[in-house]
């Protein structure tokens, strides 16, 4: 079956702009979580959605937001981009709370 | 705050060597510990450990969890150049403390393994 799909794969944006990233989970997976990966901080949890509801949010500013649709696809949005937002954004889906999570290929965001 | 510490941060070995990667953790209400391999972008799932003392194996890789001492190890025997990657350890807390059924992984910084021919 198809894995977790993230689009786009690469993005270059200018400071102050906003960006929307998309994630399609594995079929049947209703939990979708987002992570930011940078060389200095490693992988950090952004937020998690289940059945269109945000269940948990990491320690990131309000400029980072997300949503989940009825087909479990999820989007995350970053507004007023800053240079420090440059990172690999990874999405993961899981079937249930005590199962492993599978990751997408990520979106590499560069803010200039 | 949940915390995961991996050691060493980097490791260079020759093909055929055996390596042991370490992961220690502090987590409120532990549920599971997971190992991932990250070569380029997508971390790929290796093991999920929930019970102490039960070794999980997949080919040349194996892992075990010690819930009393709060650590896990990942062993790779007869290493190959294709094992070169960053190995990530993550903990998954029980959802009871993070909202109904919430799924949140806390990752360590990873161990970068380089296998040279």
Write the layout of secondary structure elements.
The complex is a heterodimer of chains A (112) and B (117).
Chain A: E1 5-7, E2 10-13, E3 19-24, E4 31-38, E5 42-50, E6 53-57, E7 64-68, E8 74-78, E9 87-94, E10 101-103, E11 107-111
Parallel strand pairs in A: 2-11
Antiparallel strand pairs in A: 1-3, 3-8, 4-5, 4-9, 5-6, 7-8, 9-10, 9-11
Chain B: E1 3-7, E2 10-14, E3 19-26, E4 30-38, E5 44-49, E6 56-58, E7 61-66, E8 71-76, E9 85-93, E10 106-107, E11 111-116
Parallel strand pairs in B: 2-11
Antiparallel strand pairs in B: 1-3, 3-8, 4-5, 4-9, 6-7, 7-8, 9-10, 9-11
Explain the overall architecture.
The complex is a heterodimer of chains A (112) and B (117). With 112 residues, chain A is an all-beta fold. In chain A, 0% of the residues lie in helices and 54% in strands. Chain A has strands spanning 5-7, 10-13, 19-24, 31-38, 42-50, 53-57, 64-68, 74-78, 87-94, 101-103, 107-111. In chain A, strands 2, 4, 5, 6, 9, 10 and 11 form a 7-stranded mixed beta sheet that branches. In chain A, strands 1-3-8-7 form a 4-stranded antiparallel beta sheet, with no helix packed on it. In chain A, a hairpin with a 5-residue loop joins β7 (64-68) and β8 (74-78). The N and C termini of chain A lie far apart (37 Å). The mean pLDDT of chain A is 95. Chain B has 117 residues and is mostly beta strands. Chain B is built from no helices and 11 strands. In chain B, strands 2, 4, 5, 9, 10 and 11 form a 6-stranded mixed beta sheet that branches. In chain B, strands 1-3-8-7-6 form a 5-stranded antiparallel beta sheet, with no helix packed on it. The mean pLDDT of chain B is 93. The interface between A and B is medium-sized, with 28 and 28 residues.
What is the compact description of this entry?
The complex is a heterodimer of chains A (112) and B (117). Chain A is an all-beta fold and 112 residues long.
């Amino acid at each position: 079956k198809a894995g977790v799909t993230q689009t786009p794969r690469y993005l270059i944006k200018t400071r102050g702009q906003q960006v929307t990233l998309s994630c399609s989970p594995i079929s049947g997976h209703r939990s979708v979580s987002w992570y930011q990966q940078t060389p200095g901080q490693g992988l950090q949890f952004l937020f998690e959605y289940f059945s269109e509801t945000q269940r948990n949010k990491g320690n990131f500013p309000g400029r980072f937001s997300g949503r989940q649709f009825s087909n479990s696809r999820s989007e995350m949005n970053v507004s007023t981009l800053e240079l420090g937002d440059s990172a690999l954004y990874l999405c993961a889906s899981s079937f249930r709370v005590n199962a492993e999570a599978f990751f997408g290929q990520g979106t590499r965001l560069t803010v200039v | 705050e949940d915390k995961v510490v991996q050691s060493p941060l980097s490791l260079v070995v020759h093909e055929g060597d055996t390596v042991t990667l370490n992961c220690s953790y502090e987590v409120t209400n532990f549920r599971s510990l997971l190992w991932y391999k990250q070569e380029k972008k997508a971390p790929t799932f290796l093991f999920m450990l929930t019970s102490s003392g039960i070794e999980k194996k997949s080919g040349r890789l194996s892992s075990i969890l010690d819930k009393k001492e709060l650590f896990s190890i990942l062993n790779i025997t007869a290493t190959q150049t294709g094992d070169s990657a960053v190995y990530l350890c993550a903990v998954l807390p029980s959802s009871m403390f993070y909202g109904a059924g919430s799924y949140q992984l806390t990752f360590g910084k990873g161990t970068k393994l380089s296998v040279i021919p």
